[in-house]
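Worked example 2:
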Amino acid sequence: MKAVLVTLVAIGLATTAHAGETMELTAPGPEGDLAGTLIAPADGKPTLLIIPGSGPTDRDGNNPAGVTAGSYRLLVEALGEQGIGSLRIDKRGMFGSKAATTNPNDVTVSAYASDVAEWVNVARETTGADCIWLLGHSEGGLIALEAVQKGEGICGVLLVAAPGRPMGDILRQQLLANPANVPIMNDALSAIAALEKGERVSTDGMNPALMGLFAPAVQGFLIDLMSRDPAAMAGRVALPMVIVSGGKDIQTQPADAEALMRGQPTAKLVRIADMNHVLKAVQGESRAANLATYSDSSLPIHPELVAAVSAFVIGTD
């Protein structure tokens, strides 16, 4: 009954939504509603669904671990100036979607993709669009690739700062890139190797600095995540695809975009030389300056990203 009620509400909104209007929407989750924010498109313009990155990242692109860049909000506001609609969402069990599950750690890539399929249905019913574009940021790129296999009504896929290699390989690289991590690397590498084999890891005696990353509650999700090959997933997508890579991204690398392109050679690759992982421009090579943008919502979203997304979804690319 819940799904029917949500559908009826969404259809009702389609008759009252005006271009640029912001409204709160819900979609059915496993135990309660998922929550999101829609900016209605102008007549004849597309709608983009933003799929958040890893961890407790909210619909605006912020994270209580110190990320307050507001990247998703800034992106959709910039796109909205061109009449492009958007739907940004909270992940199941978190923030506005807290009611969707009592255990936000009891998830898989497939579970998140099922939620995206529900959101695609709601967005289509609310806007009257035949299909919705997916933009997966970071880990959200994996969710987007999985969601394409689960549901209909998807126009195409944008993978922005998304992983192209197995997550274990990326995690090793990220940890090794920071010299301050030397004291924890033995524990970290052992944990990654075990999780890649599908084995849970004891945290007894583990360096406290790693407890958040390898907490027992999230190990099931990590095992699922590390079992996936993003390039192979991209190869199974028959829809239009754009891959966006930032030259100042310290979390995903050009190698990730290149791997995705090998998986799906028909995709278009967009390189933005000075864009980092939170989709802001960074001057110079300082890691500190790069990380400073993660907590600065006053910095605009990178204009080249806005241009690339707009060209793709409007059809001028």
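The two ends are 41 Å apart (CA to CA). The CA atoms of residues 169 and 197 lie 13 Å apart.
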